Amino acid sequence: MSNQEMVHLRILRQDAEGAPRRWERFKVPYQPYMNVLSCLMEIQKNPVDADGRKVAPVAWDSACLEEVCGSCTMIINGQVRQGCSAMVDQLAQPIELRPMSKFPVIRDLRVDRSRIFADFRRVRAWVDIDGTYDVGPGPRYSAEVAEVRYALSRCMACGCCLEVCPNYGPQSPFIGPAAINQARLFNLHPSGGMHAGERLDVLMEEGGLADCGNAQNCVQACPHKIPLTTSLAEMMRAATRRALFER
Amino acid sequence: MAPSRASDRPRFLVVGGGLAGLMTVIKIAEAGHDVDVFSLVPCRRSHSVCAQGGINGAVNTKGEGDSPELHFMDTIKGGDFLADQPPVRSMCQAAPGLIYLLDRMGVPFTRTREGLIDFRRFGGTLHHRTAFAGATTGQQILYALDEQVRRLEAQGRVRRFENHEMVSLVRDETGRCRGIVVVDLRTMEVQAHAGACVALATGGLGLIFGKSTNSSINTGSAASIAYQQGARYANGEFIQVHPTSIPGSDKLRLMSESLRGEGGRIWVPKDRNDRRRGEDIPEGERYYFLEEKYPVYGNLVPRDIASREIFDVVVNQGMGVGGERFVYLDLTHLPPERHRKLQGVLEMYEKYIGEDPRKVPMKVFPAVHYSMGGLWVDYDQQTNIPGLFAVGECDFAFHGANRLGANSLLSCLYSGTVAGPAMIREAAGVSSAVSSALLEAECRRVEAELEWIRRLDGPENPYRLWTEMGEMMTENATVVRDNRKLQATDERLVEMMERLRRCAVLDTGRVCNHPLMFIRQLWNMLVLARVIVRGALLRDESRGAHYKPEFPQRDDARFLQHTVAEYAGGSLLSGEGAPRISYAPVDTSLIKPVLRDYSRAPEYAPPTASI
User: Fold this and answer.
1) Per DSSP, which regions of B349-487 are E strands?
2) Is B303 designated active site?
3) Residue A198, min C-alpha distance to chain B (Å)
4) Are B391 and B201 in contact (CB under 8 A)?
5) Are residues A213 and A128 part of one domain?
6) Chain A residues with CB inside 8 Å of B103's CB?
7) CA distance B26 to chain A (A)
8) Predicted confidence band at B4 (pLDDT cuts at 50, 70, 90)?
9) Which of B27, B136, B250 shows the shortest C-beta gap to A132?
């Protein structure tokens, strides 16, 4: 074991919401194809810090492990991203892990991102279908629009765009790029678009589009390369048109 | 004392926030009833996000003469005749309508030039029958359902209990399921919830095999709990091994069947000592073993067959790429528009392997992917416990001995549309009053068990024990099975149950205590592992995903029957945990079982079978 190559980590820990924070160092045996989450899994199998002191295993969120669920978002060497797709071979060591800063920490790397879903609800991010009973085929629309919608719909509500947004945070009412992108996604659907005005009205309230400072960090942080700044611009244009001509 | 949530108005409880659970929720809420949904993670992060390739439905927009009846026939044959046929036929008949419904909900299905939903080829059929949204179809469908549930939530019909884990059923003196006990995974608070009916939509059990294509939450724990509390568990030994995945140190990532549906080809170098890079090996020196052996279905034979052939080439013939266990999955010859349709999966390969699969053949190997077996249910999706239903991967219906690709999203949705109304009907005949003493007694039992776990301070580490179990199960209970090894595996599982009782809890934290819950989950996994292994041991034949070289033929006289496991007793606190196995007849009233042959086209094949 002593000759084996080790991966060094430095993790910001917190036992509960509001509890004091502390850094702990770890070293875990290297394996091929290793990502940050497998380092955390190694700590579970041998929960001692780098000095051999017994500690509790690190708490983190995970589910899919392949960057489609958004669970394991954390700050890795200063960059917000998913732990599952952060490959050890591509990271400087010691690998520094800390929880996202824009959401309340529950324990260690786990944060409460329920605000994201509340904001999806606020912008009515759904199609108002009459019911799930059979009414035949859905509306026909072009492959081009479907492709645009697909790109927007890959948002996994991970919160990377919100973490890097200077206008989003616990003290700010700004709804953030993720929810605004959802409004565009549903406004682009033939029947979702019938209620476009309702979504725009929400985005024209306090904390809406006007609070975007155009830093454009969001589009760079998005792990799925969703054109968030295009969504912001499109929604601003639609909101301006609504303000001038439709209300 | 734990709070007990009894209420006057009947509430329906759905455990699991993936496709099957959310469809059940929608059906109940839409009918005007109140529903609570419980999920380990926010619903939007459930394992359904991992489904890539698509959803089957015979919409027949490609001029191939497809129909729900042909879809039904393909599905029954794909499952090697082990599925009860009437519900499968109903599912296939409902499929086109379900795809239209998803389209109305806004799922961004990939479309044709005319603006229609496009369909691709998938395994076990010669028709274009699979609707898809790029290569992340499950993610897109899950989001659409999550959004509809949010809409119903805004109307006050649905409450979400996300980050909650079900730890027990509440059964009354007549045996009826009257609610559940859950743990809030953040505060670790134990709560009882009364329910008019309960549906389990808790998905698969890949973690029993350690590393699989499943999410880190797929322990099968909830299904195991129901089984330990009296539910029958059927066909547990039928575990699907997907032919194409990539390695990882935390999981094995699926490389969708749609890669082959869009024209990807499987091959190995003809010369086993060939050490050139895949892209440098000329066409004539490549062995396309699936295409050679199955000229009609080619790379799109059902998954059990593809995995067995890969296993044969790599293990028995020693022809794996570079002397390892990999085969090539080659997409380099496909045009850019095909690559674009597969974008999500190709990006994943690039991220995790560091090579561009548009330019270099991918290296893949088989991985545990899906459980055909699950909780026994009747044609209303009700288990043998009155008031308890099961939907989605955790039920045993629809897929028989092998599931066809793109039928899982369909069975999840369809079973939800059946269970929702059936739960309402079932509840109508029962008094909704649940005694709070009953709920509190079950809460106290769970709390006592958790306190017992909190005091564990032995030498074993539960995570290491889990890794050991997973490696053993993958080695002995997947593609090829052998009775001596299965017997030894079962004995070691019993030892591991004892070792688990000598582990350390590792964490004394009062919030987000993962090890505390994981020890229970690991017990539940060991219990289900025994169901899988004992079922496999007793089934002396080969059928679908269950293959024993010693018994290479299907034996309908003895085994055209469902394996039914019932729990013989025991618990984490007392040890044991053995299954009692019996058999139940299969309803083959619609299609007579015949030899399952993929070497030629069926008579209903479309005139031109092309990718």
Assistant:
1) 362-371, 374-375, 388-390
2) yes
3) 14
4) yes
5) yes
6) 137-139
7) 8
8) very low
9) B27
- Are A12 and A60 in contact, with CB atoms under 8 Å apart? no
CA distance B365 to B318: 14
Amino acid in position B592? K
Contacts of B4 (CB under 8 A, 6+ apart): B191, B192, B194, B436, B439, B440, B443
Beta bridge partners of B492: none
Q: Which candidate from A137, A142, A150 shows the least CB-CB separation from B103?
A: A137
- In the predicted model, is pLDDT for residue B1 greater than 60? no
Strands lying side by side in the sheet with B190-194: B4-5, B190-194, B177-184, B164-171
Give the number of other Cβ atoms within 10 Å of residue B34's Cβ: 16
Listed in sequence order, the residues at least 6 apart from B610 whose beta carbon sits closer than 8 Å to its beta carbon are none
**Cα separation, A98 vs B370, whole angstroms:** 34
* Judgement on whether residues A10 and A131 belong to the same structural domain of the protein: no
Residue B524 in this model has a pLDDT that exceeds 80: yes
Beta bridge partners of B130: B56, B120
Q: What is the Cα–Cα distance from B132 to B117, expressed in whole angstroms?
A: 8
Residue A81 and residue A122 in one domain: no
The pLDDT tens digits of the residues spanning B451-472 come to 999 999 999 999 999 999 999 9
Number of domains composing chain A? 2
The two structure tokens encoding residue B136: 């992340």
Of B41, B116, B140, Cβ closest to residue A140:
B116
All residue ranges of chain A with pLDDT < 50 are 1-2
For B350: left if phi > 0, alpha if psi spans -120 to 50, otherwise beta; the answer is alpha
Q: What are phi and psi of B61, to 5 degrees?
A: -105, 15
**CA B56 – CA B53 distance, rounded (Å):** 10
User: Does residue A217 belong to any structural domain of this protein?
Assistant: yes
**How confident is the model at residue B608, as a pLDDT?**
67
A95 domain residue, yes or no:
yes
Q: Is residue B446's pLDDT more than 50? A: yes
- How many residues are recorded in chain A? 247
Tell me which architecture the domain covering B256-364 has in CATH. Alpha-Beta Complex (3.90)
A188 with A132, same domain: the answer is yes
Q: What is the pLDDT of residue B8?
A: 59
One domain for residues A89 and A177 = no
Same domain, A70 and A139: no
Domain that holds residue A64: 6-111
State residue B480's pLDDT score: 98
Among residues A58, A83, A111, the one where a domain terminates is A111
Q: Are A6 and A27 in contact (CB under 8 A)?
A: yes
Domain boundary residue, one of A73, A90, A111: A111
Residue B363 Cα distances to B262, B266, B277, B322, B421, angstroms: 17, 10, 11, 10, 46
Type of residue at B579: P
CB within 8 Å: A64 and B49: yes
Q: Rounded to whole angstroms, how far apart are CA atoms B458 and B475?
A: 28
Is residue A27 domain-resident?
A: yes
- Do A234 and A141 have their domain in common? yes
**Domain of A18: which CATH number?**
3.10.20.30
One domain, residues A200 and A105: no
Residues of chain A with Cβ-Cβ distance to B44 below 8 Å are: 69-70, 117, 156-157
- pLDDT, one tens digit per residue, over B294-307 is 999 999 999 999 99
Q: How far is B214 from chain A (nearest CA, A)?
A: 7
Q: How many A×B Cβ pairs under 8 Å? A: 202
- Identity of the amino acid at B130: T
> Band of the pLDDT at B433, cuts 50, 70, 90?
confident
Q: Please, are residues A12 and A74 in contact by the beta-carbon 8 Å criterion?
A: no
* Torsion from C-alpha of A25, A29, A32, A33, nearest 10 degrees: -40
Q: Which of B44, B260, B265, B303 is catalytic?
A: B303
